[in-house]
Amino acid sequence: ALTLTAAGTNGAIGAAGAILTDGSSVAFSANGTGAVNITEANGANVSGAAGSGNVGVTSTTGDLTVSGNISTTGNVALTASAGNIVRTAGTISGNALTLTAAGTNGAIGAAGAVLTDANSIAFSANGTGAVNITEANGANVSGTAGSGNVGITSTTADLGVGASGITTAGGMVTLKAAGVDTIVDCTVVGL
């Protein structure tokens, strides 16, 4: 288990270049406007917080597992270069979220929804990998999913579809906004 803490006024982790890790779990804490930039060698359980700095975590092999809250008021980019994005606990919170599962059949939340709280979400799944996201406060969502199914749910507010739309080649796209709220600006392609 690795714990990375930058407690300075604008404490950053990997600001000059990614911190390279190889652990079963990585917990981080940055401060102020300090950014977080981590490249994990073997897949890991990840959690942490950064004040208003951007957060970028990449797993070069295996799955990237959200095992607790990942939060900032900045942007969050999570990438599983050769696997899936999986959630066992916690919510990913930030301004703009980018979720990339680039494994052969890279999925995002296939075994259980990835929980988010953001203004916008961009996703990219690969092959037959599915996308399953539950958003807490409504967001503009866009992305592609190879040929996998896409399911996006907003639990408390409108769900917008970004200008680039949502695309899957052969999968099914399901969008759901809770209560009386609406799905707005929608371009969805299921080929």
Question: Could you characterize the architecture of this molecule?
Answer:
The protein has 191 residues and is an all-beta fold. The protein has no helices and 18 strands. The chain has strands spanning 2-5, 19-21, 25-29, 36-40, 44-49, 55-59, 64-71, 76-80, 85-87, 92-101, 114-125, 131-135, 140-145, 150-154, 159-168, 173-177, 183-184, 188-190. It is globular and about 45 Å long.
List the helices and strands and how they pair.
Elements: E1 2-5, E2 19-21, E3 25-29, E4 36-40, E5 44-49, E6 55-59, E7 64-71, E8 76-80, E9 85-87, E10 92-101, E11 114-125, E12 131-135, E13 140-145, E14 150-154, E15 159-168, E16 173-177, E17 183-184, E18 188-190
Parallel strand pairs: 1-3, 2-4, 3-5, 4-6, 5-7, 6-8, 7-9, 7-10, 8-10, 10-11, 11-12, 11-13, 12-14, 13-15, 14-16, 15-17, 15-18
Structural features:
191 residues, mainly beta, 18-stranded parallel sheet
Radius of gyration: 16 Å
- Would you tell me the structural class of the helices and strands? mainly beta
> Helix count?
0
Biggest sheet record: 18 strands, parallel
Q: Helicity, in percent?
A: under 10%
